[in-house]
Amino acid sequence: MALACAPVYYAAGFTVSNAPEIIHIIEPHSAIDYVNSHDYAAYDLFEDAPREIKTMERWAANNGVQRSDGFKLEDDGKDKGKDVFAVTTQDVPSGSPVLFVPEPMILSSSKAIAELQGPGMEEAENYVRSKGAEVEYRQWYLMLKILKEIQNGRDSPWYEWLNSMPRYYSNAASMTDFCIQCLPPLMRKLVGEEREIQHRLSKESIKMVPFLCDDLKYHPRDFCLWAYQIVYTRSVEAEDGDLRIVPMADYFNHGSDYTEIEPVYDDAGNYYAYTTYDVPAGSPLRFSYADPRNPSHLIARYGFLDDNCPASYCKLLPPTVNQDMLDLGYSYDRMLFYRTGEVADEVWDIFLYQHLSSTNIDHQQLLMKAHREGDHDTKLALHEKYYPATSSALLEHVDSFIDEVDKVTKKSEAHPIYIKNEHRRLPLIHRHNQFVKETFENVRRRYTPEIEVNWQEATRLEMEECDDTECALAECMLDYQGGWFCEGGLTNADGSEREKSQTVTNWA
Fold first, then answer.
1. Whole-prediction pTM
2. DSSP H helices in 117-184
């Protein structure tokens, strides 16, 4: 029996008790009028629809959100306010609270599952399992919660927040088929994986959910896709594994070079954002969404290019990946090319392993034995012996990738008018391709045969050594025992080492 979109009455607003007055409270405007409308068509999903940011801010203040003086939502001044983000207009000392959000306003996977899982959901859950998407249950139930609130129209307590959400996205789920053809191979693979997740969790499984009405499920405007975009771009995993979307906090942008914000939850589940250093006026307020060394993932999942990414995956896609290669470190987050042209050790290990697989199986087995036993001397000797071959293979891979990027870039620039109107994500894709190409060109310049670089020198880097009071740079290299030898940095007055942390700042 089809479910009609019958009215479901909600009490407007959230009950907030014992809210701490640690932050200046924005004076609420007049109470928002809740119209008894359950028409989800109240949401305009046109990509260029205006975002109701001011209304959302009044809604947040009326429901207990507290913000520090100087906390402000701004847009980038272009693209009709598509990108809105938090900044501070005043200096904020380190460790200061800048945002408080009461727990009842927070959407979470655990609360969504507790509310929505029950009789009648077996068919939909079995379908999700049959598609191998059990690992996405948390996101799926958050999507169902969002769809339920969309269905309730203006009677949803989250209506003003939902109506402030972006309609325009540039991530994988929003790309056209032509956009995908303009991506290099690995990026196409990542985009394909993201789109497969979206397909598994949307149309077919949503049709089986009993509390969603048919009009919403089959509406020509894709509310399922919108719910997916909201969940996958705005939810953050807490330490306990719960996925949470925190209204107002979801306007903190991503940071890779610096992150100004550290999120904290108290015992009652209330959310706080504290500054991580002395933040000067005019600065963005950011935290890290994901590994900053993987710009391709950031575009595929979130739809933006982080120009400050220090590295990129090396884009190596072997025909098969066996357990030996996994043990050596084959993964997107470890097989890295750094923007300075440096190459991660895992890349060298994989190139050496592949070379030995066709030239010397005994030495390949010796490499694996040395790797598993921590025999750095043997590994170093093998790298030195085969460096001419592995560096040649590396350069061949680099040149091949650059050629591929040039081809897809030419395709993306072929018809500018057509692209502007039909494939609006292509300028971002073009920027991504150029960003990665520049990184690969830096690698090529560093390892061309004209430049004599041996295996040990290839590991040279700078470290920033810090204690509680100061920082200093040290230049470090691998020694022949596989440890680091550093010159400079922090030392005591007598020249001895002292306790400190180390962070790679630049590959020499």
1. 0.76
2. 122-130, 137-151, 159-162, 177-181
